[in-house]
Amino acid sequence: MSLTAAKRYANAFLETAIEQDKLEKAKDDMLTIKSTLESSSELRLFLKNPIVKNSQKKAALEAIFTKQVDELTFRLINLLLEKKREGLLDEITRNFLALYNHHHGIIEAEVSSASELSDKQFKTLAKQLGVSTGKKVKINSKIDSDLIGGLMVRIDDTVIDGTVKYKLRQLKQSLTSVAVE
Fold first, then answer.
1. Could you name the CATH architecture of 2-102?
2. Is the pLDDT confidence value at 1 over 70?
3. What single-letter DSSP state applies at residue 149?
4. Pairing mode, if any, of strands 136-143 and 106-113?
5. Cα–Cα distance between 39 and 42 in angstroms, integer?
6. Are 18 and 107 in contact (CB under 8 A)?
7. Is 163 left (phi over 0), alpha (psi -120 to 50) or beta?
8. What's the CA angle centered on 144, arms 141 and 149, to 5 degrees?
């Protein structure tokens, strides 16, 4: 139920930001809120704690975000406090950013590699993924030394595994499945 509510709030906020021509500012605000919540597990727990008074939560959020976010975004925060839905703020930011990307035809690709990609490799990969998906691609890269070499790309539910680790696993399976005569 709460995930559905977070999606609804995010969608309504996106539509309002578009109507008021504040979409880019709203995106920046959501990124600010997201990074603040990600960097503070105490804040996330504080907001989700039903024992903490609403006035305390409001004072904390005002102290943190009043000067950092636009008036429109702060009205969303106040609405969440009023409806006692402030615990959804983290999920709302994620949903909003996903809706923002969809609105702009952007997809996110998670790329894992054994070592850091050069700028040229990064740009080539982004271009190839853009051509194959027909969308703008935002790449989130991470290094996983267990992969030995190659790349693993995840876009939504699709995984393209071109890692040495995967190819070695396939080779092992094919060699062990062959009956010895």
1. Orthogonal Bundle (1.10)
2. no
3. S
4. parallel
5. 9
6. no
7. beta
8. 100
DSSP code string of 88-145: GHHHHHHHHHHHHHHHTTEEEEEEEESSPPPHHHHHHHHHHHHHHHTSEEEEEEEE-G
pLDDT in tens, 22-55: 999 999 999 999 999 999 999 989 988 889 998 9
Strand partners, 106: 136
Residue with tokens 């996110």: 108
| Integer CA distances (angstroms), 107 to 13, 68, 88, 132, 152, in order | 20, 27, 24, 12, 16
Crossing angle of helices 89-103 and 71-82, rounded to 10°: 140
Mean pLDDT of 1-10: 85
State pLDDT tens for residues 101-148: 999 988 888 888 888 888 898 889 888 888 888 888 888 888 888 888
Dmax over CA atoms of the chain, in Å, equals: 77
- For the record, the structure tokens of 67 come out as 């000067």
CA dist 120 and 122 (Å) reads: 5
Cross-strand partners of 141 = 111
Reading the block at residue 141, the tokens are: 């890269």
8 Å CB contact between 112 and 142: yes
